[in-house]
Design brief:
The protein is an alpha+beta fold. About 15% of the residues lie in helices and about 45% in strands.
């Protein structure tokens, strides 16, 4: 009996094993794990949204994402934990933001955000020039995909509720070069030293899957920025301590 056949039989036996349902109320997830090894997810998966309706639905096989996954902010197919084929990505208000073919590494569609006269700093060695671009640098999957792991890594401080203005912004500038690699991260507008440091680290730690900016049909290195705004809600001090 060949090795391929043996592996297939082993996988079939694993998938046929009993599973146990897990309801993670903290993360609003419902999924199944193997009864023999509760670290291995196996079977249907569901993540609930704000109104407890299904926000994301998919399937696990041998602990890896597999088959069709649907919901917000992305729809597409996983094969053994890897995205394959054409995926569609949506922004925070449900508009189509990108279509990307993960099999051919090709951008099929992107939604322009900003104004047509926006200027970007293009770098050539140590010199920079501000110009218009045919396409700004794009994070594969869009802003919602980029922000999800950042929010999971950063604990937001209570002190933001005590700021005098209605909101504050933090801006982190960095360079996206002509190959899509990022470097030279720096906070250009912050909230506090400790929080700025945590958010900066979270931004660096997420997968750096960038497409470079395009000017005159060619990829170029530019300065890009990540901006996050905090809405300030005024509360009584005793409420914050409860």
């Amino acid at each position: 009996m060949g090795l391929t056949v043996l592996l297939t039989l082993a996988q079939d036996r694993l998938s046929a094993q009993e599973t146990v349902k897990v309801e993670d109320k903290k993360h609003k997830e419902i999924y199944y794990v193997l009864k023999s090894d509760k670290k291995v997810r196996q079977g249907p998966y569901c993540k609930l949204g704000c109104n407890d309706s299904a926000e994301v639905e998919g399937f696990y096989k041998n602990g890896l994402k597999d088959s069709i996954w649907t919901g917000w902010p992305a729809n597409g197919v996983y094969v053994q934990g890897r995205k394959t084929g054409v995926w569609v990505y949506y922004n925070f208000i449900g508009q189509l933001e990108q279509k990307y073919d993960h099999s051919t590494n090709e951008l099929l569609y992107w939604r322009f955000c900003g104004t047509p006269d926006s200027l970007f700093a293009i770098y050539s060695g140590d010199d920079s020039t501000k110009v218009k671009l045919e396409r700004p640098p794009l994070y594969i999957g869009g802003e919602a995909v980029q922000l999800e792991p950042i929010l999971a890594r950063v604990r937001f401080p209570w002190f933001t509720l005590w700021l005098h203005k209605n909101y504050r912004k933090i801006i982190i500038n960095f360079t996206v070069d002509s190959s899509g690699k990022t470097s030279d991260y720096r906070v250009t507008k912050g909230i506090s030293a400790s929080f700025d440091k945590r958010l900066l680290k979270a931004l660096k730690d997420i997968p750096q899957t960038w497409l470079p900016a395009i000017q005159n049909g060619k990829p170029v290195s530019i300065e890009h920025n990540f901006m996050m705004s905090f809405v300030i809600v005024h509360r009584h001090k005793k409420q914050l301590q409860n």
